[in-house]
Amino acid sequence: MKKNLVVILTVILFVSCGTKKYNENDTVLNGEIKNSRIKNVFITYEGVTDTVVLDKKGRFTYITELSKPVYVLLKNGNNSTSVYLSPKSKTNIKFDSKKLNETLKFSGTDGDINVYLREQSQLMDNSEIASDKFLRAPAYEIFDNSLNNLMNGLNNRLDEFAAKTKGKYADFINIENQRLNVIKSYLILSFYIPQINANTIDERIENEIDNSVKNIEIDNPDVYGLQEFISFAQPYVMYKLYKKFDKNSPEYESIDEYANAYFITIDELYKSNEIKENLYYIYINEFLSYYGIESVKDAYQKYKEISENEERLAYLESIFFENTKLDPGNPSVDFSFPDINGKVYRLSDFRGKYVYIDVWASWCGPCRAEFPHLKALKEKFKTKNLAVIGISVDEEKEKWENMIRSQKLDGIQLYAGGWNNPLCDFYEITGIPRFILIDMEGNIINANADRPSGKIETILNSLNGI
Predict the structure, then answer these.
(1) What does the pLDDT read at residue 14?
(2) pLDDT of residue 246
(3) I need a surface site. Which of 119, 233, 335, 408 has the fewest CB within 10 A?
(4) Quick one: residue 89, left, alpha or beta (phi over 0 = left, psi -120 to 50 = alpha)?
(5) Please, which residues have CB within 8 angstroms of residue 125's CB and are 6 or more apart in sequence?
């Protein structure tokens, strides 16, 4: 596996519903959302997402028990905002879904803090973080200028809030300082990771990352509870992996090796079992989505040793149990898809041959990066007992056809017509590229096989009858 560091960005885990009965020890968030077509509100903190249903008047009540303050991400449709909740607090939020910024209002226990947080959020929105003046800037100097302007604005606003409230929210201000440090480090990492992928190394940026991270209390559970820390933690692990990787090896030779190095790095970076338990859980799920169950078998065993969260353990156990169908030796689903001329192929048509499947799409950069390696592999095995099948999950057939022609993709190229198909369902494919190796009887050898750029040539040459 080449050293492209793929940022994996989804973290929605468990879903539950609130109830309107509560007592004085509960933390309560009451809300009213006008003109919302979406009847669910999603409330996320510490890696968990709860769902609350709006009533006919757009109102909702969310009840939880907190042992410490948390920053919550509240989402309704395309609208989202941060909400600060403290233990036993009773907070109210109101807005119109058609004009969130103009109508958002807070009241109740944490009203002052939430008004401040919304102002900070607007500062970030106005900074156009995703633009070519910031994260997509063509030069570090442009990015650095935008970053400094944003951080100066955020820190000045925090200083104003501290002066105005005169020590009333001292604990919040301490953790808010940490949150701003995390935001700064995350933004620098987000700018630099694509450069690492492109082998464009800059010691100035690396020094800035290292100095910025020193200001973060990385093993403080209150810091870990920040939504921004979850976003920061993953690219930071990838950055530290790159630092080790750059010194010791030109590439990771398999997905399993990369996954093991990933979780070892988590162990090295974080001392707190609470933090490690949460990060293991989040990224086991991410690796499952992108690389399959084989990639995290060792991490899952370690997770069972460090976790006491029965709900999470039961959830992962159910996934691993379900995935036993993908164990080596079990029969593959007998899919059928058409080629560019409309001829339909089934897996069973290739009985008597080994089958190497490439699941890809025209929009997928890592998929396209494998094309030259796959072409070379086909050439080496053209006289062997091997069928190499490309299967596209493009939603638009024309884009698949254009890619076939422009890249001169030869051999058997089939069109699955999106993600909703028997192959993706059976192999639970949610990330690509994905490679699958099938034996001559239609049974699974590896449901998450090595890529053409990895060790697959050696593996194929070891097969009897190839």
Answers:
(1) 33
(2) 59
(3) 408
(4) beta
(5) none
Residues 6 or more apart in contact with residue 438 via CB below 8 angstroms? 332, 347, 354, 355, 356, 357, 444, 445
Q: Which domains does the chain have, with CATH numbers?
A: 1-108 (2.60.40.1120), 336-461 (3.40.30.10)
**pLDDT tens, position by position, 289-303:** 777 777 888 999 999
Q: What pLDDT band is residue 20 in, cutting at 50, 70 and 90?
A: low
Q: First CA to last CA across the chain, in angstroms?
A: 24
Round to whole Å and give the CA distance between 25 and 20: 14
Distances in Å between the Cα of 444 and the Cα atoms of 197, 332, 382 are 32, 6, 22
pLDDT digits (tens, 9 = 90+) for 175-185: 999 999 999 99
Phi, psi for 176 (deg, rounded to 5) = -70, -35
pTM: 0.65
Per-residue model confidence (pLDDT) at position 10: 35
User: Which position has the token pair 């995390």?
Assistant: 182
Distance in angstroms (rounded) separating the CA atoms of residues 111 and 93: 9
Strand 59-64 to 27-34 pairing: antiparallel
Amino acid in position 420: N
Q: How many CB atoms lie within 10 A of CB 79?
A: 19
428: tokens are 């639970």
Nearest alpha carbon to residue 268 among 234, 240, 308, 242 = 240
User: Rounded distance, CA 306 to CA 336, Å?
Assistant: 43
